Amino acid sequence: DSGVTQTPKHLITATGQRVTLRCSPRSGDLSVYWYQQSLDQGLQFLIQYYNGEERAKGNILERFSAQQFPDLHSELNLSSLELGDSALYFCASSVLSGTLQETQYFGPGTRLLVL
Amino acid sequence: KNEVEQSPQNLTAQEGEFITINCSYSVGISALHWLQQHPGGGIVSLFMLSSGKKKHGRLIATINIQEKHSSLHITASHPRDSAVYICAVRSREGDKLIFGTGTRLQVFP
Distance between CA A89 and CA A72 in Å, rounded? Predict the structure, then answer.
């Protein structure tokens, strides 16, 4: 158990809908990272938050948004869902901003299926 | 061409064999990660390194910054090592993680 929790574990929804994925980092970790893993694209970095502020941005679509709250949990919002958004979404956390040699601890993932 | 390339894509070994997985990258990096993804999907960070060599149990990771190459070695492999091993680099430009496509390892008893 990494100490990172993600909810829900599974999510099935329809095209055009909007969903919210939630991540609670390990106690004391200030950074939260979001990743998408699809069958055809592999793992892709979406976005990082550090202490409430956006720190780095990857291949995140405009239909997706994220935020980190004062209690450091983070939410990833996916809207106008398409079939191709079906994937495993991972959250990870690290102690600081990630530029130092810090380990990232991964959550169990949320499996999203868009029908 | 991908910015992070791994080889081989698939690897089969007998228990006890020495395993090497390679990772080459083409961007400037601040760190390189080796991750392990189990069949159930869970991801564990094995190493993060920016120079030299790190060892943890039967696992050894090395990096050569000049050659932009890293290797992950598994000594005395065991069936429980069966997993996908993923190399990821933290690029200096944009400070983001770029992933390789993974190496699927199966170790048979």
Answer: 18
Q: Which positions in chain A have a beta carbon within 8 angstroms of at least one beta carbon in chain B?
A: 2, 33, 35, 42-45, 48, 55-58, 88, 90, 92, 98-99, 101-106, 108-109, 111
Look at residue B16 and tell me whether its pLDDT is greater than 70: yes
pLDDT (tens digit, 9 = 90+) per residue, B31-40? 899 999 998 7
Q: What backbone torsions phi and psi does residue A96 show, to the nearest 5 degrees?
A: -115, -145
Task: Count CA atoms within 13 Å of residue A17 on its CB side.
Answer: 14
Residues in chain A, overall count: 115
In one letter, which amino acid is B61? A
Q: Is the dihedral of CA B101, B55, B97, B37 positive or negative?
A: positive
- Band (pLDDT 50/70/90 cuts) for residue B90 is confident
Contacts of B45 in chain A (CB under 8 A): 103-106
Q: Which residue has the tokens 């869970």?
A: B42
Task: Name the residue facing B99 among A42, A56, A99 (closest C-beta).
Answer: A42
Q: Please enumerate residues of B whose Cβ is less than 8 A from a Cβ of A.
A: 30-31, 33, 35, 41-45, 48-50, 86, 88, 90, 94-102
Q: How far is CA A59 from CA A68, A79, A87, A114, B14, in A?
A: 18, 16, 14, 19, 38
- pLDDT, residue A101, reads 61
